[in-house]
Amino acid sequence: MAKPSDELIRLARATAAAKEQALSGPYSAEAWTPWREAVQRFMDAVTAEAAGEGRYELEMAAKKAAQGPEADPGEES
Q1: Whole-model pTM?
Q2: I need a surface site. Which of 3, 17, 23, 75 has the fewest CB within 10 A?
């Protein structure tokens, strides 16, 4: 599985935060501008980081990592 960088995870979190902000108020094109810009930065970073590897897998791994750490099934609490 692709291993996203900390920067890629940070950008994925920023994209999710921008979406939440846009959804928190009434719709306007201006309200969604920060989200569109955050998505563009994230996608550009995914493309640059993937460089010859599976871009989709890297994108999904970054988005999953941005949602928070999950306990490893083999790890004891």
Answers
A1: 0.81
A2: 75
Structure tokens at 11: 């950008």
Q: At what angle do helices 6-23 and 55-66 cross, to 10 degrees?
A: 70
How far is CA 30 from each of CA 44, 50, 65, rounded to the nearest angstrom? 22, 31, 29
Q: Which residues of 24-60 are buried (b: 16+ CB within 10 A; e: fewer)?
A: eeeeeeeebebbeebbeebeebbeebbeeeeeeebbe
Reported as a single tens digit per residue, the pLDDT across 20-77 is 999 999 999 999 999 999 999 999 999 999 987 789 999 999 999 999 865 344 433 3
Residue type, 5: S
Query: Cα angle at 61 between 64 and 31, to 5 degrees?
Result: 60
Cα(23)–Cα(27) distance, rounded to whole angstroms? 8
